[in-house]
Amino acid sequence: MDRLARYAETLDTAAREANATPQITPVDTEFSVTEAYQVQKLSVDRRLSRGERRIGVKMGLTSRAKMQQVGVDEVAWGRLTDAMLIEEGSAMSRARYVHPRVEPEVAFLMKAPLVGKVTAAAALAAVEAIAPAMEIIDSRYENFKFALEDVIADNTSSSGLVIGSWHDPRIDFSNLGVILEIDGEVVQVGSTAAILGHPIRSLVAAARLVAESGEQINAGDIVMAGGITAAPNLAPGQTVRTTVQNLGAVMFQVE
Ligand code: 0L1
Ligand code: MG
User: Fold this and answer.
1) Which of 53, 80, 145, 183 is deepest in the core (most CB within 10 A)?
2) How do strand 91-92 and strand 248-254 relate by DSSP bridges?
3) Does 63 contact ligand 1 (Cβ within 6 A)?
4) How far is the CA of 222 from the centre of ligand 2 (A)?
5) pLDDT at 64
6) Ligand 1 within 6 A of 151 CB?
7) How far is CA 144 from the centre of its chain?
8) What is the C-alpha separation between 108 and 130, in angstroms, rounded?
9) Whose CA is closest to atom 5 on ligand 1?
10) Phi/psi at 238 (5° precision)
11) ipTM rounded to 2 decimals
12) Which residues lie closer than 8 Å to 71 by C-beta, 6 or more apart?
């Protein structure tokens, strides 16, 4: 097994067993972003070979705050499978994750493919619907610490998603107020504008980045646009709710 396949196996096992693993970059100082995306694909391919189904992509590092935290000025993407879906209003098991956090987001449902360099207008024309959403991020690395290459290899920390009701995308969603509540207490407040200034820019970036890996966004795909606020830790017993102005609320429980 070559080194990239070894990393993919380690990260896949860490996710399956909910056990943290050391970062790659402190030891393999030559590990590149291109190789990291190859590891991500190899790792998600292992999931697909176990019967999981690809359902779309997630965008990460889409806010200035997140880019500064990781020390980058480029967004990253990850792959979503049906096993990551948490039904709206249901409970997720904390024990299945290493150290999960939650991000309020919006999600796009695609009605047409998007490939490579596209305009914002073309991206919007390919959107069937928009929904309030939350992503469960769960770095498989110890202490939730990583360099850019590490986090890309780790499917950009993606591990779960919850989607609310789909809405007609022909509304102005550039600057909608967002509230994240845990147990009825407001813990984060933000705006969809935190996603690259306008969430549609995240979809434009997704089309470009996914094409760089030789893939495309397909009709029927879900695209998670990116985190809107800081991501609080999740603990058993919590009720977590995100409300997006004009799009309504989405919630789940932690058990
Ligand atoms: O979805 C995100 O923006 C998170 C990307 C990875 C960084 C992190 O895990 O905080
Ligand atoms: Mg996210």
Assistant:
1) 80
2) parallel
3) no
4) 13
5) 86
6) yes
7) 15
8) 5
9) 60
10) -80, 150
11) 0.95
12) 147, 148
**Which residue's alpha carbon is at the smallest distance from atom 4 of ligand 1?**
60
Copy the structure tokens of residue 115: 């490939």
- Per-residue pLDDT at 140: 98
Cβ–ligand 1 contact at 66 (below 6 Å): yes
CA 5 from chain center: how many Å? Answer: 23
Does residue 226's CB lie within 6 angstroms of at least one atom of ligand 1?
A: yes
Task: Ligand 1, residue 61: give the atom nearest the CA.
Answer: 3
pLDDT in single tens digits along all 255 residues of the chain: 799 999 999 999 999 999 999 999 999 999 999 999 999 999 999 999 999 999 999 999 999 888 888 888 889 999 999 999 999 999 999 999 999 999 999 999 999 999 999 999 999 999 999 999 999 999 999 999 999 999 999 999 999 999 999 999 999 999 999 999 999 999 999 999 999 999 999 999 999 999 999 999 999 999 999 999 999 999 999 999 999 999 999 999 999
CA 115 to chain centre: 19
8 A C-beta contact, residue 42 and residue 162: no
DSSP 8-state class, residue 33: H
Ligand of minimum distance to the alpha carbon of 196 = 1
Measure the CA–CA gap between 149 and 25, rounded to whole angstroms.
Answer: 7
Give the ligand whose atoms come closest to the C-alpha of residue 100: 1
- Ligand 1: atom nearest CA of 157 is 9
pLDDT at residue 123 in the model: 98
- Closest to 100 measured CA to CA, from 112, 88, 82, 84: 84
Instruction: Find the 184 Cα to ligand 1 centroid distance in Å.
Output: 25
Q: Is 210 in the pocket of ligand 1 (CB under 6 A)?
A: no
Q: Which domains does the chain have, with CATH numbers?
A: 3-254 (3.90.850.10)
